[in-house]
């Protein structure tokens, strides 16, 4: 029996994830999809909507709703984590923590990302313990933010379980490039024919290659990107930086490259991104409850996470069917990148087969990128230590290491604020 457990099943992402399984059910013969959430109300609304879609579109598998984590995980082949500890209210506090101290307020990086990580790592470890006890052969597929840091924590402190971190940025970049090439070069490229080369940490990657059926198209891609940016009033990145790097930075790198610009935009809040998403989710939950609705609302894409279901189900399908498929994922690289600490979890191209997820040999990034990666990795490792042990000094040093952290003489003020507003979720710091 093939079983998938989704921890955080009450998420507004779940209907799209379900649709991915529905579209692949002939090749990925799922028997049971368990949706587990601690929020009974959300689980009921989302779960009933998914069941309605399943009935209307002929799903062959059973959908089970549960508030019991261990029951959902028991005997699962795959466990998908898409949780948000503290819900959207905590994300809102994280963002305004940054704004209050004149720092970037963001969900996955800087002080906001650190607060999110401190809340999340202990909960992920609780899930990992249940997997070890009742589904030791399962593959844990983590979408929970900050995805790279969470996957790093699992690789270091729960090595007995199989885990991999997943993000939709790489596939979004691939799809945007493919669409642009097809539109402007009169090509008919199919996404399955395309392989992107990138390296770094989650939300801290640089794209430096694109192959179509094995042929290198990067010399055509970079001019196309520059041409696109040159026509925009407010491009993601300035043209000279793209020319100098000959790479396309992950769009989250705007936080590092244009910090002052983003801080000025932050001054115009509200609404912050958390406030925008909260409003979108209210509307989505209403649409999920419409009596005659059996298809996904168009507003789903406003929520973010485009191609989420594609990434998730593509990974599970490649693993289950031993496809030896190339996908960009977050795993411990084990020496795939020469000269970098082999224990680091990186985001890079990997081969996915029944034997697991194996990184492809990948050339290191140039010094202009590698220095930033090293700084943020140091921050990740210190944050993980702080989250596990409730170690104030480790948390202090994490902020000291982070390029988007406060000045050294303001760290204590920011850290104390961070811990206090998250007191209910951080008992390890208040024993």
Number of domains: 2
Q: Tell me about the largest β-sheet.
A: 6 strands, parallel
Unreliable stretches (pLDDT < 50, length at least 5) are none
What is the subunit organization of this protein?
Answer: single chain
Helix content: 40-55%
First-to-last CA distance: 44 Å
Spatial sequence of strands, sheet with the most strands? 3-2-1-4-5-6
Number of strands: 13
Q: How much of the sequence is in beta strands?
A: 15-25%
The succession of helices and strands, N to C, reads EHEHEHEHHEHEHEEEHHEHHHHEEEHHH
What is the CATH class of the largest domain?
A: Alpha Beta
Average pLDDT level: 96
How would you classify the helix and strand content by structural class?
Answer: alpha/beta
CATH superfamily of the largest domain: AglA-like glucosidase
Radius of gyration from CA coordinates: 21 Å
Please characterize this protein's 3D structure.
The chain is α/β, with parallel strands linked by helices and 431 residues long. It has 2 domains: 1-167 and 250-431, AglA-like glucosidase (LDH C-terminal domain-like, Alpha-Beta Complex), CATH 3.90.1820; 170-201 and 204-249, no CATH class. It has 16 helices and 13 strands. The strands form 3 sheets. Strands 3-2-1-4-5-6 form a 6-stranded parallel beta sheet, sandwiched between helices. Strands 7, 8, 9 and 10 form a 4-stranded antiparallel beta sheet that branches. Strands 11-12-13 form a 3-stranded antiparallel beta sheet. A hairpin with a 2-residue loop joins β7 and β8 (204-212). α1 (14-23) runs parallel beside α2, α4 runs antiparallel to α5 (110-134) and α5 (110-134) crosses α6. The longest helix is centred in the first third of the chain and has 25 residues, at 110-134. The chain starts with a strand and ends in a 10-residue tail after the last helix.
């Amino acid at each position: 029996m093939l079983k998938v457990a989704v921890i955080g099943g009450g998420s507004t992402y779940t209907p799209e994830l379900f649709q991915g399984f529905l579209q692949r059910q002939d090749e990925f013969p799922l028997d049971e999809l368990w949706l587990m959430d601690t929020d009974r109300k959300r689980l009921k609304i989302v779960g009933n909507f998914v069941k309605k879609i399943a009935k209307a579109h002929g799903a062959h598998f059973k959908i089970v709703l549960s508030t019991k984590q261990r029951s959902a995980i028991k005997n699962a082949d795959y466990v998908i984590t898409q949780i948000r500890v503290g819900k959207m209210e905590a994300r809102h506090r994280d963002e305004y923590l940054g704004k209050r101290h004149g720092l970037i307020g963001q969900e996955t990086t800087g002080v906001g990302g650190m607060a999110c990580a401190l809340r999340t790592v202990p909960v992920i470890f609780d899930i990992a313990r249940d997997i070890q006890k009742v589904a030791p052969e399962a593959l844990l597929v983590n979408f929970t933010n900050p995805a790279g840091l969470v996957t790093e924590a699992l690789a270091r402190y729960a090595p007995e379980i199989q885990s991999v971190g997943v993000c939709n940025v790489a596939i979004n970049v691939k799809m945007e490039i493919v669409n642009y090439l097809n539109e402007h070069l009169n090509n008919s490229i199919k996404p399955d024919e395309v392989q992107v080369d990138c390296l770094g940490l989650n939300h801290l990657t640089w794209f430096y290659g694109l192959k179509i059926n094995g042929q290198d198209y990067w010399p055509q891609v970079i001019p196309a990107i520059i041409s696109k940016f040159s026509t925009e009033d407010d491009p993601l990145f300035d043209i000279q930086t793209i020319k100098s790097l000959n790479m396309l930075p992950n769009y989250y790198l705007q936080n590092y490259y244009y910090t002052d610009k983003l801080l000025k935009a932050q001054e115009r809040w509200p609404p912050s991104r958390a406030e925008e998403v909260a409003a979108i989710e209210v509307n989505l939950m209403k649409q999920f409850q419409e009596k005659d609705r059996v298809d996904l609302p168009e507003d789903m894409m406003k929520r973010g996470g485009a191609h989420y279901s594609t990434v998730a189900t593509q990974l599970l399908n490649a693993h289950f069917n031993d496809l030896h498929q190339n996908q960009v994922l977050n795993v411990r690289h084990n020496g795939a990148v020469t000269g970098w600490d082999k224990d680091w979890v990186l985001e890079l191209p990997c081969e996915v087969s029944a034997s697991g997820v194996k990184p492809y040999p990948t050339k290191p990034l140039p010094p202009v990128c590698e220095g930033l990666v090293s700084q943020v990795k140091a921050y990740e490792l210190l944050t993980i230590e702080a989250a596990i042990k409730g170690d104030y000094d480790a948390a202090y040093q994490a902020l000291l290491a982070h390029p988007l952290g406060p000045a050294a003489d303001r760290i204590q003020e920011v850290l104390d604020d961070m811990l206090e507003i998250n007191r209910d979720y951080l008992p390890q710091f208040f024993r």
